[in-house]
Specification:
6-stranded mixed β-sheet; 20% helix; alpha/beta; 211 residues
């Protein structure tokens, strides 16, 4: 199915949450000054929070001083997982076991608990088929997907120091056509790539998460 969608980023979601919290007064209304002060406080709180994108540089070996220091002997660790998307990395942390990562919360700075970053960088790809028969709103389109299997370099980093802890290579061999894609028009042909399996990424990360 061909799809067009708009994603709400964690930053936008936080702004909406904070805006809604600041819009209601004790008796259902605020003074203009109160509104302005509440909005300023909400914006300041939002700016100070960390989000997954703050950690992307770690995939290139950059340090991130705001992260939690990694202690190999600690009983618990929190990680983020990034994967190649076009020419950048995108956050795929939702594919990790839930107790290995954190979720955004408007009431706390949850991402400051991150001490590990795992990255899957696509290093090679092979086209294996062309997928078609996509529909837009139930109507047939000319859209096609050039589907590729891919090779990924997996790396694990200390978030605070940018120190590399482990590395490996992973083959993504899924040949099934994607059910949903985002096309620019009804005749668009795009490239897409198999992703590393969640279980393979978890197996790579597990020795550093579970003691």
């Amino acid at each position: 199915m061909a799809t067009t969608f708009k994603a709400v980023t964690p930053l936008a979601a936080a702004a909406l949450a904070l805006a809604s919290l600041g819009s209601c007064g004790k008796n259902g209304g605020n003074s203009a000054a109160g509104d302005a002060n509440g909005a300023a406080a909400a914006q300041a709180a939002l700016v100070s929070k960390l989000f997954p994108d703050n950690f992307k540089g770690v995939c290139s070996g950059a340090s991130f001083s705001a992260a939690t220091a990694y202690d190999p002997a600690a009983k618990a660790h929190k990680a983020l997982y990034f994967q190649t998307y076009k020419d950048d990395f995108s956050d795929h942390s939702s594919s990790l076991p839930t107790d290995w990562t954190v979720q955004f919360s408007p009431s706390s700075d949850a991402f400051r608990a991150i001490d590990l970053v795992v990255c899957a960088k696509r290093t090679a790809a092979k086209e294996v088929k062309v997928c078609d028969q996509y529909k837009t709103e139930g109507k047939a389109s000319q859209n096609k997907v050039r589907w590729h299997t891919a090779t990924y370099a997996l790396t694990l980093w200390e978030a605070k120091t940018g120190k590399k802890l482990a590395e490996s290579t992973l083959e993504a061999t899924d040949t099934d056509c994607p059910m949903f894609e985002n096309f620019q028009n009804d005749s668009d042909t795009i490239d897409d790539f198999a992703s590393p399996s969640s279980s393979a990424v978890a197996d790579f990360l597990r020795p550093h998460m579970v003691h």
